């Protein structure tokens, strides 16, 4: 009887040990580690009070994976849980990714620090939580960085090592094309497809630019339309370049080629600032739409440069109008190019 009892005791110990080991591979344990990681970065820091925080991507070797998507979701959950006590607001990741797709800010699902100011201006986001993963033997190192969208500086950075168990390793090896991804290329056509014969074709006069070059655009619509051109500069500044002080009426006739600036305009676009990627969005609507009041008389220059608040308001207004517009009444084109 005593021998039998010892066997039972040993067997019970083995079962307990086995359960403990398999429990380490559960997603819940990684979730707890991520929540602890976020707390280390945020808790007790007054710098985040009154801020709006978004969650970006977590990559492995520069690529998006299912594990990175899982971690990003857990980071957002942790931020939401801490937002009330921390006095900050959290932007839903789906809204952020929709914005990034519309403005080609994540062309290959990787977030770039240079995009921080652009996202900040467009969405009124003050900080972004992004990160990466590295494998060291049986350990997985997760790095979380919270970047200011105003200065592009790091507000907080923490790392955490977790076991690279079967669950983590499996998801780490599964690449994915998230809802932030795009079909590829530097030029995207949105609401400009075969479902409607209402289109706008928009292009710069040159394919390559350098600082100091003169910048010109031209566009044509297939139907009479009202056109708005929104420029997202390399520094993240948002400018409505059409209509402008010299072309106040943005109604154009079908088939008419419009040049911006117009030939009789008393101004030119000279590329200044810093090198990087410039993005210009061309929106055509069948009905007149005023995204922002056209107060040309109070403008200091020929085009309207928007404040951070105005930029985020414009983004929301465009999304709202687009969501309710049928394909027959909304057309859009967009170009992006590198300035060297």
Overview of this protein structure:
The radius of gyration is 25 Å and the shape is elongated. It is of the alpha+beta class and 340 residues long. The chain folds into 2 domains: 29-172, 3-Layer(aba) Sandwich (Rossmann fold); 200-339, Immunoglobulin-like, CATH 2.60.40. It has helices at residues 2-23, 27-42, 66-86, 93-102, 116-123, 166-172, 308-324; strands spanning 52-60, 63-64, 89-90, 127-136, 139-148, 154-163, 200-204, 214-215, 217-221, 225-232, 238-242, 251-252, 258-260, 269-270, 276-285, 304-305, 330-339. β4 and β5 form a beta hairpin. The strands form 4 sheets. Strands 1, 2, 3, 4, 5 and 6 form a 6-stranded mixed β-sheet that branches. Strands 10, 11, 12, 15, 16 and 17 form a 6-stranded antiparallel β-sheet that branches. The longest helix is centred in the N-terminal third of the chain and has 22 residues, at 2-23. Helices cover 30% and strands 29% of the residues.
């Amino acid at each position: 009887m005593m021998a039998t009892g010892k066997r039972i005791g040993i067997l019970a110990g083995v079962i307990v040990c086995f359960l403990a080991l398999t429990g380490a591979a559960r997603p819940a344990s990684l979730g707890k580690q991520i929540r602890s990681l976020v707390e280390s970065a945020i808790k007790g820091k007054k710098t985040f009070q009154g801020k709006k925080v978004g969650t970006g991507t977590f990559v492995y070797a520069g690529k998006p994976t299912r594990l990175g998507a899982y971690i990003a979701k857990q980071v957002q959950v942790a931020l939401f849980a801490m937002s009330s006590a921390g006095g900050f607001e959290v932007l839903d990741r789906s809204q952020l990714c929709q914005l990034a797709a519309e403005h080609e800010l994540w062309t290959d699902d990787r977030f770039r620090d240079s995009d921080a100011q652009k996202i900040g201006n467009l969405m009124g986001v003050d900080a972004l939580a992004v990160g990466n993963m590295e494998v060291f033997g049986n350990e997985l190192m997760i790095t979380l960085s919270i970047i200011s969208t105003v200065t592009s500086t790091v507000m907080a950075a923490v790392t955490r090592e977790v076991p690279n168990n079967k669950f983590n390793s499996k998801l780490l090896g599964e690449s994915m094309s998230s809802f932030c991804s795009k079909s590829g290329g530097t030029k995207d056509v949105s609401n400009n497809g075969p479902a409607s014969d209402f289109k706008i074709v928009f292009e710069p006069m040159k394919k390559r630019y350098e600082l100091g070059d003169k910048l010109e655009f031209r566009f044509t619509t297939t139907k009479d339309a009202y056109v708005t051109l929104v420029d997202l500069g390399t520094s993240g500044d948002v400018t409505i370049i059409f209509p402008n002080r010299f072309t106040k009426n943005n109604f154009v006739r079908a088939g008419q080629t419009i040049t911006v600036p117009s030939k009789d305009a008393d101004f030119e676009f000279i590329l200044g600032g810093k090198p990087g990627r410039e993005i210009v969005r061309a929106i055509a609507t069948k009905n007149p739409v005023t995204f922002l009041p056209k107060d040309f008389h109070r403008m200091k220059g020929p085009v309207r440069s928007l404040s951070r608040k105005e930029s985020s308001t414009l983004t929301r207004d465009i999304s709202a109008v687009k969501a309710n517009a049928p394909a027959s009444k909304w057309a859009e084109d967009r170009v992006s190019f590198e300035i060297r």
